[in-house]
Design goal:
Elements (H helix, E strand, L loop, with lengths): L17 H20 L8 E2 L2 E2 L7 E2 L8 E2 L6 H8 L2 H10 L6 H12 L2
Antiparallel strand pairs: 1-2, 3-4
Length: 116
Amino acid sequence: MDDHGRIFAVLAGKPLDPTYDEAATGVLDMILQAQKTANFNPRLIKHRRGHFPALLFGISHGNGQPSPKRLKVGKHAALVDSLLRSSDLVRLASYADGEPFSQAAASALKRALLCT
């Protein structure tokens, strides 16, 4: 909770599976490596959410937009693609979505993504 008593994070547990910790460590390593090598513009480092690198990507619809649009990541497209292709990141996201995700499924997904 913050100084005003607002909840800003909840620790919701994790699967009872040691490979989940390995996936979390893999994602952390990828993010830390990206931070070192991405050469972020200063405006992507200091912004209203804090003082850390942040990229917007995905679909946006708001702020007066008449229709949904895919956000452009410019020179960081390869970085975003590599993060999204990570079976470790997919593993973490699937748990957050409440979906079971086996290591075999992660490996199959990684093989499929790398073939496209």
